[in-house]
Amino acid sequence: MIPRKQKTGSVASFLLAALVFCTQAAPSASCPAQCICYGYTVDCRGRGLSQVPVAGISKTTTTLSLAYNSISSLPAGALNDLAQLKVLYLDYNNITHISETVFHSLAQLEELTLDHNTITALPQGLFRHQGKLRKLS
To answer: What are phi and psi of 5, to 5 degrees?
Structure first.
């Protein structure tokens, strides 16, 4: 029998790539039951939510999608623990009221979608702490 040459380099590369993929795509340990979480993203689109699911969203979340729900209000404190949040999708809800302080802890926020809601007025100072906000719709 002729001994076969092991390809340890390619096997190690494959295992490393698989580990990196699983680390980035694996469900988060902290995730609201009605949402899907992967990496630093929490996806709660179209889940019939009537409020922001405060419990269970990881403090390291950078993208939160709450689009296509039935959320009608963004009360003070609803997003307080999400200081790392960069992208927040709130479009296609029934939002009529937004607390003046709801976004104050979101200093890293770069993108916010609020379109397709029934908002008639925005509180003065709503975006006072959003110096990095680049896209608002």
So the answer is: -80, 125
